[in-house]
Structure formats: C-alpha cells, structure tokens
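User: I'm new to structure prediction. If I give you an amino acid sequence, what do you actually give back? Let's try with this one:
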Amino acid sequence: MKVVSTNKAPQAIGPYSQAMVANGMVFTSGQIALSPDGEIVCDDVVGQCEQVLKNLSEVLKEAGADLSSVIKTTIFLSDMDDFKAVNEVYAKYFSDHKPARSTVAVKTLPLNVKVEIDCIAMVLEK
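Assistant: Good question. You get back a string of structure tokens that encode the predicted 3D arrangement of the chain. For your 126 residues, that looks like this:
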C-alpha cells in the first residue's frame, strides 16, 4: 500500500490520508471545498463543487490516476435541493466518461460545507 499526499490539495483535517493506493487502485478520502491552504473557498454549492473536483483531480494526479480513470464516486450533499446544481458542475468534469455514482443527503458535513465527494479509480498505465 502507498499513502498519497499532495500540497496541491488540502491536507486531511483528521487522522486519515488524502488517498491510498493498493493493487493498482486509488481510494480517495472525501474532499470538501477547501483550498490547498485549508480555507473554505465560498458559500455557494457550485463554487464548492468546483473546488472539490479540483481537489480530487490533484489527489488522483499524485496517485498516478486522473478523472478518466475513476470507476466510482460518492457525493454527499447537505441539501438534496443542490442535486441539480452539483450535477451541472459534475458533468463538466465527467462529460464523456461517466463513472458509477451514488449521491446521498447527510445531516451535516465537515466544517458545514455543502458537498463532499470521494472516489475509487485505477492507476493509469505508464
């Protein structure tokens, strides 16, 4: 197993890694709308979702993967009324490649953000 860590995405806010690589697979921790320096980027769900997907992209890159190698995502929303707006942002990042996905509403998310996303991907062949 390999621990993945990059300073191009926010550091973990708890006792966990940004991602782990095992047997050619990348398992990311949930990313929220923090800038790489740990500040919440904005209050609206569109801007937060953009930052979350940028963070995921950076973590995947460090792990030797990218969004095109994502197999499954899980989206956590603090308000299911944000589903449509999140889908619009998500579709920009996953236009042709559409991984399997689950979306769930939760009572609250870390730091009271509106969206969190994690994923499972394959390490790209070199």
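You can read the tokens as a compact description of the fold. Here is one thing that stands out. The longest helix spans residues 45-63.
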